């Protein structure tokens, strides 16, 4: 499959992964709603119940219609009903997948964020966010363990003529001795930016908990903007990897190796990404196999043996997706790679689609496999 076709297929999955609910089959809704953990301080709504339903309440006394659109790009919709007090209230027609979801409010045709919720960068704008508690959320919970640090860095970019931003996670204990660390370059998806993996993905908490449990070798994570959003959603086939590849390989990696305690070689350098960031990962690792030793595609396509044939052999190829995406393709790709002699691992997140719980779980599975 060509890269353009793969990207087109990937974004078709994004557009169709939202659950459809039937009013006729809707079960009784438990009235045990609690405020979402992502609400603004002191805000009661939005709320989530034990079944995964979400309830919204918006103050718009002069509006004629109010609708909540959930998911990347604000697909679908929950129509709210106006009360005599001017507040519009409504509950999703069915339970949402566990984990994080973007959403926005449409009031008389205008798109707004929910004043009750915190905002997260997605869909090329700051969107409201809601969290449906997951049964396995312990692996990304904030715990009483040693914590690493996420710091913002500005690095020079001659190719773009501007300073560029990255966020760097350093593990607990970094800088207290002369220890040097491997590095994972971790990319966001289309419509997002370099804040996504820390804010929506909880990558730092996932790492802190794995390190505290002794399940991984500590390493650094670098997250930078993938330059994907300059391409309009409907013209994603026009995306060219060359400008970002130059920024990453020729400018950011040398900056990180010069300013952090890194093991600056291929065997201690990985690249992974979610969705569009996975496609960037595939293109760059195939173009620069001498730069990265570990590859990870999280809902971001697959590698075939012929892609890797004749190139420096990766130490690991990790491919994942949600069970509501295309799990058979992920499993088959890993099996084909194994049969061809590659160290390939597939992972499927149960009961999730093209969304952040899939990618949180994928990072949790990938991290212990890196830098062995």
TrEMBL record:
Coiled-coil intervals, chain numbering: none
Span of the signal peptide: 1-30
Pfam families named among the record's database cross-references: Esterase
Record bears the keyword Hydrolase: yes
Single GO molecular function: hydrolase activity
Xref: SUPFAM superfamilies: alpha/beta-Hydrolases, E set domains
Keywords: Hydrolase, Signal
Keyword Signal: yes
Protein name (database record): Alpha/beta hydrolase-fold protein
Organism: Nibrella viscosa
